[in-house]
Amino acid sequence: QVQLVESGGGVVQTGGSLRLSCAASGRTFSRYTMGWFRQAPGKEREFVAAVSWDGDSQYYTNSVKGRFIISRDNAKNTVYLQMNSLKPEDTAVYYCNGDMTIGIRKLPGDYWGQGTQVTVSS
Questions:
Q1: In sequence order, which residues have a C-beta less than 8 Å from that of residue 99 and are 6 or more positions away?
Q2: Which of 19, 62, 67, 111 has the most CB atoms at less than 10 Å from its CB?
Q3: DSSP assignment of 61-90, as one string?
Q4: What is the sign of the dihedral through the CA atoms of 40, 46, 57 and 112?
Q5: Half-sphere exposure of 14 (CA within 13 A, CB side)
Q6: CA–CA distance from 11 to each of 96, 98, 104, 107 (Å)?
Q7: Sign (positive/negative) of CA torsion 26, 28, 30, 33?
Q8: What whole-number distance in Å separates Cα of residue 101 and Cα of residue 61?
Q9: How far apart are CA 102 and CA 119, in angstroms?
Q10: In angstroms, rounded to a whole number, what is the distance separating the alpha carbons of residues 37 and 20?
Q11: Tens digit of pLDDT for each residue in 58-101?
């Protein structure tokens, strides 16, 4: 069982940066592919980024490539999402997810955080 707690959301102007953190409890954290999803008002939840269990592989949705960086520190049981050059369309609630399945599709696992709001003002 893994519990996830996100932090780091807030309000930022267009072009600004934020770093989200996801702290995990449970000894199995380091085995899981971890990721971030987001959900904007009136839209479905969508995949943003994922990182393999060892941190060696990263995956991104096209709209954030070159702007967002996902990383993890297994010693701290934490996964990060560095968000740069933020745009108003990045405004959403961001959710941390554990035990993802990476293939042609990026499928969420069973473990979700409570979400953190990111608002980018124009």
A1: 2, 32, 33, 109, 110, 111
A2: 111
A3: -GGGTTTEEEEEETTTTEEEEEE-S--GGG
A4: positive
A5: 5
A6: 19, 25, 33, 28
A7: negative
A8: 15
A9: 28
A10: 12
A11: 999 999 999 999 999 999 999 999 999 999 999 999 999 999 99
Q: Which of 34, 55, 25 is nearest to 108 (CA)?
A: 34
Q: How far apart are CA 4 and CA 21, in angstroms?
A: 10
Sheet holding 68-73, edge to edge: 3-7, 18-25, 78-83, 68-73
Distance CA 17, CA 23 (A): 20
Q: Which residue has the tokens 């996100």?
A: 6
Could you tell me if 87 and 40 are in contact, meaning their C-beta atoms sit under 8 angstroms apart? Answer: no
Q: In a 3-state reduction of DSSP, which class is residue 12?
A: strand
Q: Output the six-digit token pair for 94.
A: 């961001």
Length of the chain: 122
**CA gap 65, 51 in Å, rounded:** 14
Taking only the tens place, the pLDDT of each residue in 33-69 is 999 999 999 999 999 999 999 999 999 999 999 999 9
